[in-house]
Amino acid sequence: MKDKKITGRIIDIKELSGDYKKQMYSLFTRYFVVEEKTFFSDLNEKEKIILLFANGTKKIKGFSTLKTMRVTVDGTKIKAVFSGDTIVDSSYRNELDLMKHFGRYIYNNMEKGVKFYWFLISMGFRTYRFLPLIFEDYYPRYDRETPVFEKKIIDVLAYEKFGKAYNKEKGVIIPRNKNFLKVKHATIPLNRLTNPHIKYFLRSNPGYTKGDELACITEIKKENFKPIFYRITGC
Description:
By secondary structure, the chain is an alpha+beta fold. It has a single domain (6-233), classed as Gcn5-related N-acetyltransferase (GNAT) (Aminopeptidase, 3-Layer(aba) Sandwich), CATH 3.40.630.30. The chain has helices at residues 18-31, 36-44, 97-108, 125-128, 130-134, 148-162, 183-186, 196-204, 227-233, and strands at 6-12, 32-33, 48-54, 60-73, 76-88, 115-122, 166-167, 172-173, 180-181, 213-219. The strands form 2 sheets. An 8-stranded mixed beta sheet has the order 1-3-4-5-6-10-8-7. Strand 5, helix 3 and strand 6 form a beta-alpha-beta unit. It is globular and about 45 Å long.
């Protein structure tokens, strides 16, 4: 068995040290163009964060911010976990710790009798590819129309979080203060362009290089997890 390169843990946002915050901003701006005040404003409104460290050190090699949202759609109470800024150092992307910790987090936060969703916004194709990788059903997707109720959930969550920056017809968030992927990281390899999921992402979010985000959901329930989810998380 190969040695692990990274280890991860989840902490409250309020527990982040100044040094960790500086490391996070430095890592994020290696891949994204973003104003410092925008980055930290977004960070401060989250509740939890997954931190990934180079094994045996306090050097941050990845992170993902998390926030719980609660809305009502057609009289149904909806709980959702929203993923904010997320990045993993490209040298560590073959490691599975981010998915492991996120998977355990959502698994442990399911509530009996409460409909629970992952609200994901995708600026890049790698983020969108998480959905078909670990979930059976998710929306929007290339091979199936988004059902009416699920579309309403997307609309309500996106408007709740982003207000008028959300374009309901396109299903895309077009923020005023944008952060966006640097060109070399936004470019999709030619050999990936035939992938139906990636082709759909490009059609649905053609402004992704400018910072536009595709609004997506998947229901968090045991029968919606693919076998790989259980192998990675050990749940």
